[in-house]
Amino acid sequence: MTYISWSNWSGTASSTASRVVFPTERDGVVAAVSAAAADGLRIKAVGSGHSFTAAAATTGVRVELGALSSLLSVDAAARLVTVQAGMPLHRLNVALATHGLALPNLGDIDTQTISGALATGTHGTGGRFGCLSTFVEAIEIVTGTGEVLRCSRSSSPEVFAAAAVNLGALGIVTELTLRCVDAFTLRASEQPAPLPSVLADLDSLVGLNDHVEFYWFPYTDRVQLKRNNRVAADDEPLARWRGWLDDEFLSNRVFAAACRLGRAAPRTVPTISRVSSWALAPRTYTGPSHEVFCTPRRVRFVEMEYGLPRDALRPALAELRRIVDSLPSAVVFPVEVRFTGADDLWLSHGYGRDSAYIAIHQYVGMPYEEYFKRFEAVATSLGGRPHWGKLHYRDAAYLTSAYPRFADFRAVRDKLDPDRLFANEYLDRVLG
């Protein structure tokens, strides 16, 4: 028997499977599920490993989806595309662009597989947009009973409401049909700003811009404010040298060096943060939507993110600032704040409410648990919901109270995976 190890991008989760399979078609996934059941093994699919949790970890059968990564069909008139589950977002975005299409919104990282991104509730920012799973029209999934099930809002709508953000708990997704929009151009405006003024203007910033977010630099009153809005023409493209300088050299190479310095000499971190808050100059440019939304992230970190009711953002940030100032260890990474609109997917962080998201990070190798746990206590006291793809310490007892349809999700799981073929330690904790 061959044992093959796996670890995620950040190094926060790892496992060794008893066997690994590489299906090239749906029938291969069905065969793998049936064989795992016959052998009394659990089975999990993995994508790019960019989730910070152990949601994909298994000591049973690991299913690598890399060969299931084709664009199967495009209906440009209806703006519908069907894609296999293992397609990475960066490849999907380029493929859609060649057909004059795009996803309506994206996060700022595009290395995830489409199925992994949707399973964990990946989101971008924009007060009128839900998480990426709201763009799903239909899902094909191999269940724990070996059935190939296809669901949509009109066919098996309750299964669809559960499967759109599924945590990998209901089966292995093999295909997805996505509702796209015509390809569009964004005008990006990025500039440093004082945190108090951003918070004072928050309602208008979120309401008047298609997409807005900001990064707060710890130990300062400074943020980097980013606004992306749809425009008719790509008439102000970013110069190649400026893109390399800002997004590769400063944001990756120089920042990596600063993080290494902060890890070696923690007392330098407040100075590093103050310098960083002034280092990025204002810029405005236009570009295809996926090129503006997504940026390269080469500096490794660990992350926790909580979705909060929109009106809880200000008190949450105030408490977070006090936590950062009182920690025995330094925080070298900026704090990211984003916004989404309400949606109706059962385990979406934005289910039933407009949300503000606070994402906290720490450079790999630096202490983070006290920071994360103290922030989590604040976030949960304000009704926060942990991002399924980021580190958190909550269990089913809390999550039952946080998600109105949590019991309904578990009922669908009982039907689709009655023998818990797709379970692991992480799912045992969060689902009970």
Question: What's the arrangement of secondary structure elements?
Answer:
Layout: E1 4-7, E2 14-17, E3 19-21, H1 26-38, E4 43-46, E5 61-64, E6 71-75, E7 80-84, H2 89-98, E8 101-102, H3 114-119, E9 136-143, E10 148-152, H4 157-163, E11 171-179, E12 181-182, E13 185-194, H5 195-200, H6 202-208, E14 211-216, E15 222-231, H7 240-264, H8 269-279, E16 283-288, H9 289-293, E17 301-309, H10 313-326, E18 335-340, E19 355-363, H11 369-381, E20 385-386, H12 396-402, H13 406-416, H14 425-431
Structure description:
The structure is a single chain. The chain is 33% helix and 26% strand. It has 14 helices and 20 strands. The strands form five sheets. An eight-stranded antiparallel β-sheet has the order 16-13-15-14-18-19-17-20, with helices on both faces. It has a five-stranded antiparallel β-sheet with strand order 6-7-11-9-10. A hairpin with a 4-residue loop joins β6 and β7. The radius of gyration is 21 Å and the shape is globular.
Uncertain stretches? none
- Summarize model confidence as the mean pLDDT: 96
Tertiary shape: globular
The spatial strand order of the largest sheet comes to 16-13-15-14-18-19-17-20
Radius of gyration: 21 Å
Q: Label the structural class.
A: alpha+beta
Distance between the termini: 31 Å
Biggest pleated sheet: 8 strands, antiparallel
